[in-house]
Design goal:
333 residues; mainly alpha; 18 helices
Length: 333
């Protein structure tokens, strides 16, 4: 943009020089004044850019001064949050380093669900710190704290405050999750789109974005996100969520694929076999459905969900052999 602007400015200057003697004085003055105005605007832009560079240097110096390491931070990095909190409570330091200590302490409290203590640390830092990065992470901490207890309106408030201080992809993701949790899918979609643009291998974000697309009627984009999610490293929880989504949207073969991946990860609880059984049944594969139902009942013969599925199949597919399994379930005593 700046190159195009300079190119246009010099073209106007050369055109004016070429036609200077041929132009009326009034036109000369008008075009010359326009060039002067543009030059002044460029000087203003240059001044702003110079200010940004100086601010960045100051931020870099502040960042290096925030490198705080202690026994408490070691425990924190090892996810030993209770020990981290106990150590950080007693550690002594001053200035910006003490603010960093309080940040660590606040997040350790979040992880051990010491909500009032966490809130106290973050609010103190918001009131006293002059370092933008400290204020940013204090807002993030409060957002996480409120999201953890499902107070999503308050969480959104603090995540948006954090975004105004420093816009990071993590904040965009957290805002997406909060708006998703409050069923504001169109807004959540915008945040997940921004996040995924720079984090294309985040399977959970792709899953959420796919759900937002599906809710907004963009089914092809939804399927694209869900399939992309499966190609990444996925947790058992996410595989189970994808299985439910595929089942609800009528893609029972994909649901079965997810359940089989869970089996490959050595998950063999009743929900896995029930999911396999139900989706095989909806594909009218009676043999594999009965086999999976038998395995589910062997684990938990009194499982209400398995019994309800068998009861539904008995009513809607009576020619299949569900009655014997139904008698073994907890629905019929």
């Amino acid at each position: 943009f700046l190159y195009s602007w300079l190119k246009a400015w010099f073209k106007e200057l050369n055109d004016l020089k070429t036609s200077w003697l041929l132009l009326p004085e009034s036109i000369r003055e008008k075009r010359l004044q326009a060039l002067e105005t543009s030059a002044a605007e460029l000087l203003d832009v240059w001044t702003v850019l110079d200010d940004y560079i100086h601010a960045l240097k100051e931020d870099e110096q502040t960042f290096h001064s925030m490198n705080y390491e202690s026994l408490g931070t070691i425990y924190y990095d090892l996810s030993m949050y209770e020990k981290a909190a106990k150590s950080l409570e007693t550690e002594k330091t001053t200035g910006v380093l003490d603010e960093v200590r309080r940040l660590y302490l606040g997040f350790a409290y979040v992880f051990i669900e010491a909500d009032s203590q966490a809130k106290e640390q973050f609010l103190y830092l918001l009131k006293t710190s002059r370092v933008p990065l400290i204020r940013h992470f204090s807002c993030v901490g409060l957002g996480c704290l409120y999201a953890q207890v499902n107070q999503f309106d308050e969480a959104i408030h603090f995540f948006e405050r954090a975004k105004r201080i420093t816009e990071t992809t993590d904040v965009m993701y957290n805002l997406g999750v909060c708006f998703f949790a409050t069923c504001m899918f169109s807004i959540a979609k915008q945040y997940f789109q921004t996040y995924v643009a720079s984090n294309r291998d985040d399977s959970e974000a792709l899953f959420f974005l796919g759900c937002c697309y599906y809710h907004d009627g963009e089914k092809e984009k939804a399927w694209s996100c869900w399939l992309a999610s499966l190609q990444q490293d996925v947790t058992a929880e996410l595989l189970l969520a994808l299985a439910y989504v595929f089942e609800w949207t009528g893609n029972h073969e994909m649901a079965i694929n997810c359940y089989k991946q869970l089996q490959a990860m050595r998950y063999a609880d009743v929900d896995i076999f029930h999911g396999l059984a139900w989706n095989y049944a909806l594909l009218e594969n009676e043999e594999k459905a009965i086999d999976a139902f038998q395995k589910a009942l062997a684990i938990d013969p009194d499982n209400d969900q398995v019994a309800q599925s068998l009861s539904w199949l008995e009513r809607h597919w009576p020619e299949a052999n569900w009655s014997e399994l139904l008698l073994r379930s907890g629905l019929v005593k």
